[in-house]
Design brief:
The protein is mainly α and 66 residues long. Helix content is 18%, strand content 0%. The protein has one helix and no strands. It has one helix at residues 40-51. The longest helix has 12 residues, at 40-51. The termini are far apart.
Length: 66
């Protein structure tokens, strides 16, 4: 089975999070209940990359949000 995880950047300035939604960071992942716990590692790595100082050389210039 092929699985993939995609990052999407929110560009709609009118968007509002769902009533019971919240933003989370890497420090929250340990206590979060996920529908698929196997994604925890992917999310941890992604959030760590965002907190890092620079984009890895193998990534294209548009690899970082913004």
């Amino acid at each position: 089975m092929l699985e993939a995880v995609f990052e999407l950047e929110l560009t709609d300035r009118e968007w509002r999070k769902p009533t019971h939604g919240r933003w989370v960071g890497r420090s929250d992942l340990g206590t979060l209940r996920l529908a698929d716990d196997e994604q925890r590692g992917v999310l941890t790595e992604y959030l760590a990359m965002l907190e890092g100082p620079e984009t890895p050389a193998q990534r294209p210039p548009w690899a970082r949000p913004g």
